[in-house]
Specification:
The chain is an all-alpha fold. It is built from 21 helices and two strands. It has a two-stranded antiparallel sheet.
Length: 444
Amino acid sequence: MIAVEDDVFALNEAQFGTYDDAKATALKTKRQRKRTNSRSHSSEGNEDAVSPMSDEFPKLKLDASFKRDRRSRTGSRGLPKKGGAGGKGVWGKAGDELSSSAAKDKSDPNFEATEMDRDVTLGAYIPVLDKEEIDKNVKPLLVEYFENGELEECISAIGAFNIGPENIGDVLTLAVSMALESSAGKREACSKLIADMYGRLVEPQYMEDAFLVLLKQIPDLVLDNPNAPDDAGKFLARAIADDCLPPAFLKRLASFDLPKLSQNAIVHASSLLTMKLAMSKISNIWGVEGLDTETKYYSNKLWFILKEYLKSSEQDEVKTSLRELDIPHFHHEVVYEAIVLAMEQRVSEFETHAQRMIDLLQYLGKASIITKVQFEKGFKRVTDDLDDLTVDIPTACALYAKFCDMCVAQNFMSEETYDKVYPPSRGRKRFVSEGDGGKVKTTI
């Protein structure tokens, strides 16, 4: 019996190893059987319930690797924690750096305590112009103003620049210096510009400083205009008459160390303000009322000059008079008045007066008094006014066509210029005066 048990033990030891190993193997097999039975019983008790292991869901293989998997077993993906702003070393979500509330946390490196106490408004910054930039940007505006007289447009354009109260004197000096080199009408326009700048572009407390700068620069202005002290005194008196400066300003100027020429301007202004009926006379101190009146004044002046030329035929006198007037931008009026004056004569004398006017215009062109641009502008003005001229001169169209034909025949006007100044709608027929029977001239 003992021998049989020894044989069985030896057989078990050969198959399963030692006794302890066989016992451990048996226990492990027993535990696996219990686990399998418990799973089968739970699935049988919940047959009606829908479980993740049913046919409606994909079957997963439950092994050791599945148990260690930390992903969601429901098949759905959840949102990131804190919207993606959580985690170690994270300062916020993407885009929080553009938000105004991103820097309100005291632990934020970008936090500034001063920004919490006030509202910040961002705006465009316009740099202050210096003297060179004022000459470059403001001078073209003043030139245009002196040409067309658009005061409001000039004030708005100057106000668009950031000149600054400390540099407004340079604008005043620039305007006055340009006016001193021009006619009385432009000086009147400059005085109106100064009066309109007061209270809008120039504060009352800075107007005195601006005129003080002007007075200090009189020695430089004398180099181009010998009458600068007297003219500056007129500008000073006109500013006081327009209530841009207080009368006591002249007394305060005595405390400044000004050049002698500047003191002469102050003395002249004082004498103008103390004369009888000073304010009424100073309001018209330049002799004209503005650029509109100046245009009429020069138009009448040129008409009398050309009228006198028809009597005397003195071309040099006309040239001298035009140089004295110093209105090169207005020479198109000479061409306009010359053509109209020739058409206003008797029809029988038209060719004679027209020829004298053509000779005068050729002379002024050769002497570089009237430019080609002014010639074309003068002819174009006559073309535009033909309908109005016909009211007073019934044969104005025929006479004007005759005048242009004479200019082309004498090589004073080219065919190209003729096409510019004469409207194509009127045709290219050359009519002669009524004294020739109204025949159509087919050749030049």
